[in-house]
Design brief:
This protein has about 600 residues and is of the alpha/beta class. The chain has 24 helices and 16 strands. It folds into four domains: about 100 residues, Glucose Oxidase, domain 1; about 110 residues, Enzyme I, Chain A, domain 2, CATH 1.10.274; about 180 residues, Phosphoenolpyruvate-binding domains (TIM Barrel); about 140 residues, Phosphoenolpyruvate-binding domains (TIM Barrel, Alpha-Beta Barrel). Bound molecules: phosphoenolpyruvate and magnesium ion. Magnesium ion binds next to α18.
Length: about 600
Amino acid sequence: MIPKGENILHGIPAAPGIQIGKAYLYLRDIERVKEEKIIDVEEAIENLLFALEKSKKELKKIFNLAVDKLGSKRAAIFEAQIMILDDPILIQKIIERIKTEKKSSDFIVHDEISKYQKMMIDSNERYMTERSQDIEDIKNRIIRNIRRKKWVSRITDGAIIVAESISPADAVLFNRVNAKGYVTDFGGLTSHAAIVARSLDIPAVLGASEATININTGDDLIVDGFNGLVVINPTNEQLEYFNEKIKKLSEFDEELAKVKELPAETIDKHKVKLMGNLDFINELEVLINNGAEGIGLIRTEQLFDGLDEFPDEDQQFDIFKHIAESMYPHEIVIRTFDIGGDKVLPFDVKEDNPFLGWRGVRFLLDNLQLLKPQIKAILRAAVTKNVKMMVPMITSIKEVRRVKEIVNECREELEIEGKDCCNKSDFGIMIEVPSAVYIADDLSKEVGFFSIGTNDLIQYTLAVDRGNEIVSSLYQEFHPSIIRSLKKVIDDGKANGIEVSICGEMAGDPIAVPILVGLGIDSLSVSSYSLPRIKKIIRGIEFNIAKKLADKCLKLETEEEIQELVKKFYKNHFYDDVSQIFEDLNDNNGTD
Ligand code: PEP
Ligand code: MG
């Protein structure tokens, strides 16, 4: 049991792992300025020049670091900021105003740069609006330096990031500066930020409300992503406790390394294809090293995140080809862009209910200029014969048929354009909306495979926002409606001879795996770092017993009963000491 203390916050265990480190409070805070008269104009100008020089030095350092970690394209933001610091017209204007108006330099800087920003925002162009945020950054930096405040760089290496919320893009950015962990006030288990944290193997506790109030930059923190705990300035006893846990974890990792080369099959030789999800290109190596038998989900919207524009056909082709060749002969499943929802749309569209709005296939069918190049890139990459295509957010047969028509059009156009293309690219859909579950029988006659997206299926079946911590206890993987939906989709798919996979986070949940195997799932696709752990579980269970477990779960009425039954199953039938380690890592919220 964790040594008690007032210094423990509880949140949602969003990405596993334990880390100890220094906190970095990531607040998009604004320096407040007052309109103040000054007496010493010389001093004000001196302060300004000092601040400009210091800001430039800081930014140059950040720029060099960013080029290293993010590549020159992303680092260009900082280069643009440096240019502002060098803008003679702007600087001259500020100096003139200090002299004539006799107002403090921070006020004039604020006023002048804000004018700049306002122009950008008023332009109503998304790109300019976003850039205005970068200007905010530079404005605050200069003001802080005028006040000779110690600037805590936004890019603190190796810190545990504490924020109100983080976007998927923030998560990537912080990873590139070696963030050790994430703690947020808001956010849920299957929010895309959480998924990103898991794919990057960074422990995360989300929805720990008031984290940003209770934690300061520089505090010592322990993040326990298994149990959703954050310990602020831990006592020696608490540190000792968690260091012991970290030691156990690394022993556990050594244990897991042994299964990497072995097949994902149950004790009684029932095979489950165990694949990985790919969100970032640098995960490819981890997937290969962790023995993935293919990639069951490539989130293309995530893969190309960070580019200023949508990638063209050739850019996409290059990367798909690279992935296909690296994984060969294992298959890869490329999902067409799933934008909308909590993944930002490329246009300025305000929707009251983005998750019920212009998302996934709906958005793509309305934007063929994005869909067609992507389909062509996939078709061209498919010459290696291990490439499949998948479409997200399908709710009707009509959508499936329309996409298939477009695929055929693309094929024809490719032939005309004389490019390589495979005529039989496998075509599948995600089952992640209840309507698709109900019509799974019809859908399975139209497509080559199903991949169940439990993250969305749970959200849409239970009407619970997947990213909202207020209702996170209602977001239940083991709700009987979910288990029964899975059963229906698997059975309908099998009856029509197509493969059924699960690529939502549930596939990587140790408690869910025996049920999924027992329901007869053909393959699971999990985050790269979960692969060995899930394989170890599959190899430790008997298919026959898992089938009985699934049958029993299908008859139960509450999520608690289902979870209880799986726990009992682990106790009675798991023929491996790994279950002990799971128990050690899981504190059952045992802090009180
Ligand atoms: C899902 O919904 O389960 C899924 C895998 O897709 P995403 O998480 O990208 O919405
Ligand atoms: Mg989804």
